[in-house]
Design a protein that fits this description.
- The model has no long low-confidence stretch (mean pLDDT 96).
- Strand 14 and strand 15 form a beta hairpin.
- With 377 residues, the protein is of the alpha/beta class.
- The structure holds nicotinamide-adenine-dinucleotide (NAD).
- The transhydrogenation between NADH and NADP is coupled to respiration and ATP hydrolysis and functions as a proton pump across the membrane.
- Its EC number is 7.1.1.1.
- It comes from Nocardioides massiliensis.
- It catalyses: NAD(+) + NADPH + H(+)(in) = NADH + NADP(+) + H(+)(out).
Length: 377
């Protein structure tokens, strides 16, 4: 049983799907681990570390591999080298990458998408959306603190008192809660808003103030947010305006699964912020929660600096890779049948398991993820 770790090739991707520390968990399951040279460089892991941990560093790592793991979807030239029946495990935004999905299907590859791992309790250890959102949320708070030319915490000194910064977080899912926790640890006064019914309690549990706009909760399937009507969006923006205007730092992390990010903050709202204030829009890449934010850039709107997130987890490649690798190894472990007596261990995913079935995009020449299959028809 050979498992190959790809060197990421997409621009800006610094993470790696397996860190040296976790090679031993795969070898203990019975796998031979082959790593493409330089795979860990972006996350500061040298080839020698992988070799010392028991992996082979091999430019032809994918040759003869039963499983190929990566962070970004496997490149088309790699897919075309894979034998039918090979499995790939990676992020795979299948609705956006239908061409690649068609290639995976036609190559007879079984492709699993980490973002499709069902978000049920049993799958928490494999939930890469959560692990990467945690990294992103932390990074957003640190970026805000770094851009803001003032203290986050209250400082009482002999020379006088400097008040703390006020941070407003919009969207309090995994990333937002981590941004709240990090801002609180740095001493800021934090207020936050989310449309889900459970979120006020979650915000308060982080020691922040839950903003109550007096609007109905917007909850859809699986405890996720529902899309707003235009009328509701306008009312929500009106009610949030004074909170945004009073913030020294605004951090936005709101998303609705399968949709463009909702616009929570207009350009006019940002223009009301004080000189020196900072906006961090984690959702910039998926359309932006803040009108005018640009992924990967800091732009000026009114008197505020607006930072647009782009590949944010990859900005902290060490911890992001480590957490992602844990998620991948836990999924591989679920797909592995332990050896018994004469029977050796085997990579044997059980499609009766809702985690495995849910994460599978292509298998035996068929697109199993229904929305993607429909998109391809
Ligand atoms: P997400 O990244 O899809 O969205 C981020 C947040 O934006 C969500 O909290 C959402 O409610 C919020 N949002 C959407 N539209 C908004 C709007 N118009 N105004 C303000 N906020 C808005 O979500 P996520 O962080 O991946 O998680 C969302 C939910 O899933 C949470 O309830 C979380 O606890 C739950 N979850 C469960 C599991 C599990 O059980 N295994 C794992 C992870 C997350």
């Amino acid at each position: 049983m050979r498992i190959a770790v790809l060197k990421e090739t997409r621009e800006g991707e610094t993470r790696v799907a397996l860190v040296p520390e976790l090679v031993g968990r795969l070898t203990a399951l019975g796998y031979a681990v082959a790593v493409e040279p330089g795979a860990g460089v972006g996350a500061l892991h040298a080839d020698e570390e992988y070799a010392a941990a028991g992996a082979v560093v091999d430019a032809d790592a994918v040759e003869g591999a039963e499983v190929v793991v990566s962070v970004q979807p496997p490149p088309i030239d790699v897919v075309r080298r894979l034998a039918p029946g090979t499995s790939t495990i990676s992020f795979l935004p299948s609705l956006q990458e239908t061409g690649l999905v068609a290639d995976l299907r036609d190559s007879g590859v079984t492709a699993y998408a980490m973002e499709l791992v069902p978000r049920i309790s049993r799958a928490q250890a494999m939930d890469a959306l959560s692990s990467q959102a945690l990294v992103a949320g932390y990074r957003c708070a640190i970026v805000a603190a770094g851009l803001l030319r003032r203290f986050f915490p209250l400082n009482m000194t002999a020379a006088g008192t400097v008040p703390p910064a006020e941070v407003v977080v919009l969207g309090a899912g995994v990333a937002g809660l981590q941004a709240i926790a990090t801002s609180k640890r740095l001493g800021a006064v934090v207020k936050a808003y989310d449309v889900r019914a459970a979120s006020a309690e979650e915000i308060r549990s982080m020691g922040a103030q839950a903003i109550d706009l007096g609007l109905e909760a917007l909850e859809g399937a699986g405890g996720y947010a529902r899309e707003m009507t235009e009328e509701r969006a306008t009312r929500q923006r009106e009610l949030l305006t004074p909170y945004v205007a009073a913030a020294d730092a605004l951090i936005t992390t709101a998303a609705v699964p399968g949709r463009q990010a909702p616009v929570l903050v207009t350009r006019e709202m940002v223009e009301q912020m004080r000189p020196g204030s900072v906006v961090v829009d984690l959702a910039a890449e998926s359309g932006g929660n803040v009108e005018g934010s640009v992924p990967g850039q800091v732009v000026r709107i009114g008197a505020a600096q607006v930072w647009g997130g782009s590949g944010v987890p990859a900005q902290m490649p060490g911890p992001a890779s480590r957490l992602y690798a844990q998620n991948v190894v836990n999924l591989v472990a679920l797909m592995t049948r332990a050896g018994e007596g004469e029977q050796p261990p085997a990579f044997a995913p059980d499609f009766a398991d809702e985690i495995i079935a849910g994460a599978c995009v292509t298998h035996e020449g068929v697109v199993r993820h229904e929305p993607t299959r429909t998109a391809l028809e």
